[in-house]
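Sequence in, structure out.
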Amino acid sequence: EGELRDLMRTIQDLRKEKGLQAHELIVLTLPETMKELGQKFENELKKSVKAEKIVFAVQVEPSLELIHEK
């Protein structure tokens, strides 16, 4: 699905902008408008972008937060 590939590319670009390493896990926040897509492809999306969790919020753009290792 093209929309999913575009989303994964956007998230990977965000990871690069934040200087995250490939092994670092994130919490991914997506806009409510992407909820159907995010839920439909949740496992694939998590695996592809190294997200431990996906949450949905009222916002315009996808965002991510590094999960701090203990």
